[in-house]
Design goal:
Alpha-Beta Plaits; Rossmann fold; four-stranded parallel β-sheet; 20 helices; alpha/beta
């Protein structure tokens, strides 16, 4: 099978629509990791993503009869643009099923190339089911975004360019993984030309379907998939891609949302280009892998796979970047409520840059301050500061990795629950960011429980997040959980979260 794939990759006619993208040096990242770091710039394709390679190769392989019937695809955006571009070039009718949560920039790009867009479902998997229904009802030819040998071979042409553009075999190559098409295609070719290269796939922490499959020894379906890196938001790795990945990939690692945000900034600082979250995924994984394994002096390449992101999403990305870099910490400190206490606290902090300071009078004896401040990444700076504050007599909590604190509490400080509000339970909820989604949630919640706290903030992402407080008598808590489960959105109970208890609870 390996030789068959090599032949398919070498013969793929992708350059009818694809441009050969450069391998750029990353001097800032190289100095930081003390390695030779390079970026393969697939964000510079005509559709700002590598996906046009596989889509065109597949469509070029269709028979004349199949092309005459038209094609259908399901995609969160970049595969859709690739299919639309290929269809436009080959004169084929294309219908693209896209999740309703797809960033508008991708929807507009697909329509702009003449394809018909059908918005359906909240996830790729739901869109894929509807696309299969269109195959049955309209006789269209389905173009899978990753689990197809021709698509895999088309994506593998990225590796041909890398092997030709880099003067010698690399030590490590980091490749993003959603359904696995790019990872499988590149891995099979790189393993052939550079037998000793370490090939590392990178997935989002909340959409790690290939990693889960490797750990189980078989493909699994994730119960929930995070949508931040929407280009990699897949619940199950492909059957064929998994087979190839198991044979040719050395490891699959994950990166957090904050680490992805930090990687967007890293790429910008080295290239002045803004990658989409999935496009920055390989860089985030490369940083995590190098730092955790203490790698120095190695040659590394990361694939920057796409740049299709909504501009307003940059608000959220920039907000989380410093935490993802571990250059900012978020802490809560209890200080005495007396004249000069704030000055004394700041003297312990020293000359650090304070990025955020939230204060709420609590009682005559004590006050809590919610503080964001800069720290030195990669060392014990934060731990040293915490010990210093504790030694000075302060009660300190580290909220740097507390999602409720970062997403909601920092924007809500200013009021505790009233004495008249009893039995408050607090939940963090995620729902697809689409018209009517919030109303759907509130309608499903019904009128049985009184809302005592509510915070929602639009981050320009594919999903919205709220912090919700409800008055729930102890005898009705099981009933509430049943209601939330029936609504169907992801949720986490945060009633015991220390950030909530410190700033918003009684």
């Amino acid at each position: 099978m390996t030789n068959a794939y090599i032949k398919k990759i070498l013969n793929a006619p992708v350059y009818d629509v694809v441009r050969e993208t450069p391998v750029d040096d990353a001097p800032l990242m190289s100095r930081r990791l003390q390695c030779e770091v390079m970026y393969k710039r697939e964000d510079l394709q005509p559709i700002f993503s590598f996906k046009c390679r596989g889509a065109y190769n597949k469509m070029a392989s269709l028979t004349e009869a199949q092309r005459a019937c038209g094609v259908v695809a399901a995609s969160a955006g970049n595969h859709a643009q690739g299919v639309a571009l290929a269809a436009q070039r080959l004169g084929v009718k294309a219908k693209i099923v896209m999740p309703v949560t797809t960033p508008q920039i991708k929807v507009d790009a697909v329509r702009g190339r003449g394809a018909q867009v059908v918005l359906f479902g909240d996830t790729f998997d739901q869109a894929s089911v509807h696309a299969a229904e269109l195959v049955a009802s309209e006789g269209l030819t389905f173009l899978h975004p990753f689990d197809d040998p021709d698509v895999i071979a088309g994506q593998g042409t990225v590796a041909i360019e890398v092997a030709r553009q880099v003067s010698r075999p690399l030590d490590y190559v980091f490749i993003p993984c959603g359904g696995g098409g790019l990872l499988a295609g590149m891995a099979v070719y790189l393993r052939y030309v550079w037998p000793n290269v370490r090939i590392i796939g990178v997935e989002p922490e909340d959409a790690a379907c290939a990693k889960a499959a490797l750990e189980k020894g078989r493909r699994v379906v994730l119960k929930e998939v995070g949508l931040f890196a929407d280009g990699c938001a897949v619940s199950q790795v492909g059957k064929e891609t998994f087979r190839v990945i198991r044979e040719h990939v050395d490891d699959i690692i994950t990166a957090s949302t904050d680490e992805i945000c930090a990687a967007v900034k890293d790429i910008f600082e080295d290239t002045r280009a803004i990658a989409e979250p999935a496009g920055a995924l390989a860089v985030a994984g490369m940083k995590r892998y190098a730092e955790r394994h203490g790698i120095q002096g190695a040659s590394m390449l990361a694939v920057v796979s796409g740049a299709n992101t909504n501009f307003d999403r940059l608000r959220y990305i920039s907000e989380r970047t410093e935490i993802g870099e571990r250059r900012e910490a978020v802490i809560s400190v209890t200080i005495p409520e007396r004249p000069g206490a704030f000055r004394s606290f700041c003297s312990v902090i020293g000359k650090r840059n304070i990025t955020e300071f939230n204060y709420r009078y609590e009682d005559a004896d004590a006050a809590r301050v919610f503080v964001g401040l800069t720290v030195t990444p990669g060392g014990s700076d934060l731990e040293d500061l915490m010990r210093k504050l504790i030694k000075a007599g302060y009660q300190v909590d580290d909220f740097t990795d507390n999602e409720t604190a970062k997403l909601h509490v920092r924007h809500m400080i200013g009021g505790r629950v009233a004495e008249s509000v009893g039995d408050e339970m607090v939940f963090r909820v995620e729902f697809p960011e689409r018209p009517g989604a919030l109303l759907t949630f509130l309608t499903g919640l019904g009128t049985e429980f009184s809302i005592s706290l509510f915070h929602y903030r639009n981050h320009g992402a594919a999903y919205g997040r709220i912090l919700l407080g409800l008055q729930v008598p102890s005898g009705k808590r099981a009933r509430l959980r049943a209601v939330l489960a029936n609504v169907g959105y992801r949720y986490w109970e945060e009633t015991q979260n220390p950030a909530y208890r410190a700033y918003l609870g009684r």
